[in-house]
From TrEMBL:
GO terms for biological process: animal organ development; system development. GO terms for cellular component: membrane. Keywords: Calcium, Disulfide bond, EGF-like domain, Glycoprotein, Membrane, Repeat, Signal, Transmembrane, Transmembrane helix. This is EGF-like domain-containing protein. It is a single-pass type I membrane protein. GO terms for molecular function: calcium ion binding. Its main location: membrane. PANTHER family: PA14 DOMAIN-CONTAINING PROTEIN, UROMODULIN-LIKE. Residues 78-116, 117-156, 157-198, 199-244, 245-287, 288-328 form the EGF-like domain.
Length: 374
């Protein structure tokens, strides 16, 4: 809109008004159907910075003519309508030559005269995926959710487990961080029952699942609160997870079976057994068996059994020869004997006998010798 300085209460050039410039006659002609009120004495007017004191103003219902006598018209001074605050509450007014525009501020939408808030949160925004978008008048805010920290556009997980005051877990459990929160996990050796961690008896479960503990098969599992112990059984040595058989029969160790000349140690897995040597019997230790008294020998009936430690000997009786298990009569008459020359030597089982004889014919002597040889 344009104004002419010096006129008061002249209505805006709007509606069916027209403004015409006549440079040759130095005349401004305004055509309108409205009444214009002008002062009785027109003050100095200013056209583009050029003063003019001699103006002729005619006011009537119809064309209003203003004439400048001295100088030619160059231009008129623009009126800044934005000083009249013509736009809506949430709009920005921008003055233009002869007019103005209204534009809604950021965060609002409308024609500039009526502007309503835009809910940015229902459209794509730059809040973090771990933040909540909160709409505000003409804008919005990003607020990191619980368990996260940051400016809302960038939100980082808070590790609650780093600070004991930030979490609460029950006995025998430990804090485990999660995205935006945490959870409580029972420690090894415990199992969750509701919000309680109960001890796991690994030793009982080992019966059906041998792999649940690392105890050696030759170890004894002992349950403890939250864990267990492995101890090698008697006869084994090791840390419980590895157990090796102890060789109790090792001669470098404590020989458990008594004198080695009467017994023999036989190692077994985790133990040992004592075996008596032949000729000994285990009666709280290995004692000698009297084979002669218990008739456990193989001596000939013509031999004498002589017991000794762990065995026996068979000695043929006098007048017999052999190895003791087989004895034969010795014919003492066939060798040297002490019979008188006038006596006849008669062999008997195990011995000999001398009989005195009368002088007989030679044939009698031959008969006796034949009988002895037979």
């Amino acid at each position: 809109m344009y104004s002419i300085q010096g006129l008061s209460k002249v209505k805006e050039f709007a509606g069916h008004s027209s403004l015409h410039f006549n440079k040759k006659q130095s005349t401004i002609q305004i055509s309108t159907n409205a009444w214009y009120i002008v002062p009785a004495v027109t003050p100095v007017m200013r056209f583009a910075g050029i003063q003019s004191e001699a103006l002729h103003v005619t006011a009537s219902r119809g064309p209003l003519e203003i004439t400048q006598r001295r100088t030619a018209l160059v231009n008129l001074t623009d009126l800044d309508e934005c000083t009249l605050d013509p736009c809506g509450e949430n709009a920005v007014c921008a003055n233009t030559p002869g007019s103005y525009t209204c534009k809604c501020r950021d965060g609002y939408t409308g024609d500039g005269r009526v502007c309503t808030d835009i809910d940015e949160c229902i459209y794509p925004h730059n809040c973090s995926v771990n933040a909540d978008c909160i709409n505000s008048e003409g804008s919005y805010n990003c607020l990191c959710r619980a368990g996260y920290t940051g400016d809302g556009k960038t939100c980082s997980d808070i590790n609650e487990c780093d600070t004991p005051t930030n979490y609460t877990c029950w006995a025998n459990s430990k804090c485990q961080n999660t995205n935006g929160s945490y959870t409580c996990v029972c420690e090894n050796g415990y199992s969750a029952v509701g919000k309680t961690c109960m001890d796991v008896d690994e030793c009982s479960l080992q019966v059906t699942d041998p792999n649940i503990t690392n105890c050696h098969p030759d170890a004894i599992c002992s349950n403890t609160d939250g864990s267990y112990n492995c101890n090698c059984k008697d006869g084994f040595a090791g840390n419980g997870t590895v157990c090796k058989d102890i060789d109790e029969c090792d001669p470098k160790g404590n020989y458990p079976c008594g004198p080695s000349d009467t017994s023999k140690c036989i190692n077994t897995n985790g133990s040992y057994r004592c075996s008596c040597h032949r000729g000994y019997r285990n009666v709280d230790g290995c004692i000698d068996i009297d084979e002669c008294r218990e008739n456990l020998h193989n001596c000939d009936r013509l031999a004498t059994c002589i017991n000794k430690n762990g065995s026996f000997d068979c000695n043929c009786s006098d007048g017999y020869s052999g190895n003791g298990t087989h004895c034969t009569d010795i014919n003492e008459c066939s060798g040297g004997h002490d019979c008188h020359g006038a006596a006849i030597c008669l062999n008997t089982p195990g011995s000999l006998r001398a009989n005195a004889v009368m002088v007989s014919p030679p044939w009698v002597k031959d008969l006796v010798e034949t009988a002895q040889d037979g």
